[in-house]
Amino acid sequence: MLITFKSKSSAGLTMYQEHAQRILDLLHKNASRGVITAAEAAKAVELLEQEVALSKLHPEVEADHAAHTHAHTLPEEGETPEIAERNHVGFAQRAYPLLEMLRAARDGGDDIIWGV
Fold it and tell me: Which of 43, 47, 73, 92 measures 20 to 30 Å from 54, CA to CA?
C-alpha cells in the first residue's frame, strides 16, 4: 500500500506504507489517515533526526528493522549476500524525503496531510 504525503510547502511524496510506518509510529500517527500540523513539525523534525542518527550509530538495529520490510525479505533471483548488502536502502535514505518535507512545512508554517 502506498501513502502520499501532501503539503503546500513542498511537492507531494509517496512512500510504501511499510517504509513510512516506522516514521509514523515514531510520531504517534496513523498510517491510513492523518496530519502533522505546522505546530508539530518542529518536534517531528527533531524526533526523526534523532532516529536517523541512531540508525546510523547502530546498524544491527537497522538490519533488524530492515528484516521486516517486504523488499528486504525478497532478494532478487541470484542475488548474493554481498550484492544485497550493497543494494540495501537504509532508514536514513528512506526517511530523508519526508524529513525534508517536514523541514519545509516547519519553515513555511504548513501542515502535512495523508490519506484524504
Answer: 73
Residue from 20, 42, 15 nearest 30 by CA = 20
DSSP-H helix ranges across 1-116: 17-26, 38-57, 59-66, 70-73, 81-87, 91-108
Cell 548474493 sits at which residue? Answer: 80
Per residue in 62-116, pLDDT tens? 655 555 554 444 556 777 777 766 667 889 999 999 999 999 999 999 999 999 8
Q: pTM of the entire structure?
A: 0.78
The pair phi, psi for residue 78, each rounded to 5°, is: 80, 5
C-alpha cell belonging to residue 91: 532508514
CA-nearest of 71, 65, 96, 69 to 84 is 71
- C-alpha gyration radius of the chain: 15
State the Cα angle at 84 between 83 and 87, rounded to 5°.
Answer: 85
